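Input (structure):
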C-alpha cells in the first residue's frame, strides 16, 4: 500500500502547472465521442477517473488515439473519433471506477439510447446516491434499475428508452445532476430545462457551446433542445483549479512564500477558493490569458498569517471539492472558521465531513463536527500522526498539505487513490518538500511521445 511521509517545510518558492481539469476532461471525452468528426483534445487529465470515461466512450464506439501520454497513467493529448450521436451497444458492463461524475454523466448519455447498458464502480461509488439522477431521468421516460446492495445505488442497469423533455427543479445544487439531465435532453425531442437551486459549475454548458450545441440560460434555468449535432472541435483543457488548491493553501499558510500556478482554469463557477484564501489574508493576483470558452490564466499567491473566515452558503457548490483543504487552511489560521450548509460532503468519495474532522482532530486541531459541516478554531499546533485517506484522493492530498505544517512526521496511508484526480501529485509534493522551485523540477517525469 503506498503512503506519503511528510515533514514541515520552511519555505515555498515555486512556479509550475497542474494536470488538466477533471470535470472538463470527462465532458471532452463524452462530447468528443458524440460529435460529427475527429476532435483533438490537449492536456486531457490522464487520471483513472477520466481514462475510465474515455474507455467508456470507446466501448460505445468512439475510438481514440493517444498522441502523447503520461506513461503508466493515460493519454494527455489524444484524438477522439466522434460517432455523430450514434453510439453502439457496449459488449460488457462499463467500469466507472471511483468516479461519480463519470457514472452520472454517462447515465444521462445512456438513458435515451436504443440499447441497454450497465454501469458499475468501486465500493465507494457503489455506496453513493444515484436516485438524484434516476429520478429526473425516470421522469424523462428512462428505465434505470439500481442494482446495488445499498438501495438507490450502482450498479445501474439502463434499459433502451425513448425520452421526453421535462422541466426539472433540482433539489440539490449538483453540476453532475444538471449535466446528466442536459445530456439526456440532447436525445429527447423538444426542450429540456433544468432549474438549479444555486449556481453550479457550468462546464457542460460551456463545452456544449464549443461543440456548437446551444443551450439557453434564464436566471438559474438552463434549457437544451434535443436533436442537435455536436460539431467536432479541438479543445485544450486548462489545469485543474481543484488540484492547484492544495498548493495554493500550502503557499497561503506560509508567510514569505511565493507560488505561481500557470495555465489553470479560472472559470468563475470554480474560483471561490481564491476569494476564500484572500479573505483569510493571502495576497493573490490572477492573470487571465484567455476568456473565451473556458477562462484560463495564472495565479500568483504570497503567503501571510491567515485568519479564520465563514464560508458563505452560495460559495459552497463552487468550492465543494476544496473544502477538505480549506479546513486544513482553517486549522493553520488564527480564529474561527465556519463551514456549514455543506451536507453534500457526506456523499462524496468518502463522508468528507467525518474524514476531515477525525483526521484534523488526530493532528491536534480544535474542530467541531456538525451534520452539515464543521467549525474550526485555528492556531493549535498540528503534530504529525498516521492518517488514513480512506481511499479518498482529496483527503490524501489535503492531509499531505497539513503534514507540511506539522511538527514531526505525518504519514498518510493508502495514497494510491490520488491517481483518480492528480497523477504526479507525489512528484510535485517531493519537489515542494525539497524546496525545488522551477517549472522543470515539477515536470512529470514519464511524459513521452507515443
Ligand atoms: C463535478 C461536480 C461536483 C464535484 C465533482 C465534479 C462535475 O459534484 O464535486 O468532483 O464535474 O460535474 P456535484 O455537482 O454533484 O456536487
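Output (sequence):
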Amino acid at each position: 500500500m503506498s503512503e506519503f511521509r511528510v515533514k514541515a517545510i520552511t519555505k515555498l518558492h515555486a512556479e509550475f502547472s497542474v494536470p488538466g481539469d477533471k470535470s472538463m476532461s470527462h465532458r471532452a471525452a463524452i462530447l468528443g465521442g458524440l460529435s460529427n468528426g475527429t476532435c483533438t483534445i490537449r492536456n486531457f487529465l490522464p487520471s483513472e477517473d477520466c481514462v475510465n470515461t474515455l474507455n467508456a466512450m470507446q466501448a460505445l464506439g468512439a475510438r481514440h488515439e493517444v498522441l502523447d501520454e503520461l506513461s503508466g497513467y493515460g493519454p494527455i493529448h489524444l484524438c477522439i473519433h466522434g460517432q455523430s450521436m450514434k453510439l453502439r451497444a457496449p459488449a460488457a458492463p462499463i467500469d466507472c471506477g471511483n468516479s461519480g461524475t463519470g457514472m452520472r454523466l454517462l447515465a444521462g448519455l445512456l438513458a435515451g439510447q436504443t440499447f441497454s447498458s450497465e454501469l458499475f464502480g468501486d465500493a465507494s461509488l457503489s455506496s453513493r446516491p444515484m436516485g438524484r439522477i434516476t429520478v429526473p431521468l425516470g421522469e424523462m421516460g428512462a428505465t434505470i434499475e439500481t442494482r446495488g446492495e445499498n438501495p438507490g445505488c450502482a450498479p445501474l442497469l439502463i434499459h433502451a428508452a425513448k425520452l421526453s423533455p421535462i422541466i426539472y427543479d433540482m433539489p440539490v445544487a449538483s453540476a453532475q445532476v444538471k449535466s446528466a439531465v442536459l445530456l439526456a435532453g440532447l436525445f429527447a425531442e423538444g426542450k429540456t430545462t433544468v432549474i438549479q437551486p444555486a449556481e453550479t459549475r457550468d462546464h457542460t454548458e460551456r463545452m456544449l457551446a464549443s461543440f456548437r450545441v446551444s443551450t439557453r440560460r434564464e436566471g438559474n434555468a438552463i434549457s437544451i433542445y434535443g436533436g442537435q449535432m455536436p460539431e467536432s472541435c479541438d479543445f485544450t483543457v486548462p489545469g485543474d483549479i481543484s488540484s492547484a488548491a492544495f498548493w495554493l493553501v500550502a503557499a497561503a499558510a506560509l508567510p514569505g512564500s511565493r507560488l505561481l500556478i500557470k495555465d489553470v482554469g479560472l472559470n468563475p463557477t470554480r474560483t471561490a477558493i481564491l476569494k476564500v484564501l484572500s479573505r483569510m489574508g493571502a495576497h493573490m493576483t490572477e492573470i487571465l490569458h484567455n476568456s473565451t470558452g473556458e477562462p484560463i490564466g495564472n495565479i500568483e499567491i504570497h503567503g501571510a498569517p491567515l485568519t479564520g473566515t465563514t464560508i458563505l452558503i452560495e460559495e459552497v457548490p463552487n468550492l465543494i471539492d476544496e473544502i477538505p483543504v480549506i479546513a486544513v487552511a482553517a486549522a493553520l489560521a488564527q480564529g474561527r472558521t465556519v463551514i456549514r450548509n455543506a451536507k453534500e460532503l457526506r456523499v462524496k468519495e468518502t463522508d468528507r465531513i467525518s474524514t476531515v474532522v477525525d483526521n484534523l482532530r488526530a493532528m491536534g486541531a480544535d474542530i467541531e463536527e456538525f451534520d452539515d459541516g464543521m467549525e474550526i478554531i485555528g492556531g493549535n499546533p498540528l503534530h504529525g500522526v498516521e492518517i488514513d485517506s480512506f481511499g479518498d484522493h482529496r483527503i490524501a492530498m489535503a492531509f499531505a498539505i497539513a503534514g507540511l505544517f506539522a511538527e514531526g512526521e505525518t504519514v498518510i496511508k493508502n495514497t494510491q487513490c490520488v491517481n483518480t484526480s492528480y497523477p504526479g501529485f507525489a512528484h510535485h509534493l517531493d519537489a515542494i518538500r525539497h524546496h525545488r522551485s522551477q517549472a522543470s523540477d515539477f515536470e512529470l517525469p514519464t511524459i513521452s511521445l507515443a
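Notes: Residues 3-19+240-448 form a domain with the UDP-n-acetylglucosamine1-carboxyvinyl-transferase; Chain fold (CATH 3.65.10.10). The chain is about 30% helix and 25% strand.
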